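Example 3.2
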Amino acid sequence: TTSHETTRRRLTHHIGAPPHVISSWHDNHPDQDVPDGLTLTQPWPAGPSDQCRDETIYYRYSADRARRTLRGIDTQVAKAEKAVAGKIPVKRNRFVHLSGATRSINRDLEKRARTLAGWKCYVTNLPNPNPDPETVISAYHRLYNIEKSFAHVQIRPKSTPHLPPTCASPSRPT
């Protein structure tokens, strides 16, 4: 199995169902709200035929991210209900299940989306047995800021003013 296939399987696992550590937290705390900033850790051992190292996956919950995500889910479900009722045409709504001519709302998918609202996944393959979650998460945030600044640099040359024709420049004759 190649590393690409392993990654694909891992992502399929995470997208298809809530990860085990998140599901077990909800099972152990059925009537509690997830505390803001909660970090759960899940080891992810490499398979016997994998050419890569073991990984550690951190799941961090953000109440603000959950609020925004749940608002989007509520909007999508409301549109899905209107589409199922025939009030609006069915376009691309992930919560509408079509089976022949019958339309219904996929409540399992809605439940899964609500369970995952607010969680973000951070993966590392650092060889340390238990890398500090804050170190890994801050490295992801630094990478995001670096990529954001590069995107700004790519846009900026279009908005910089050109030199006036009277200025001497090596590429311009005076």
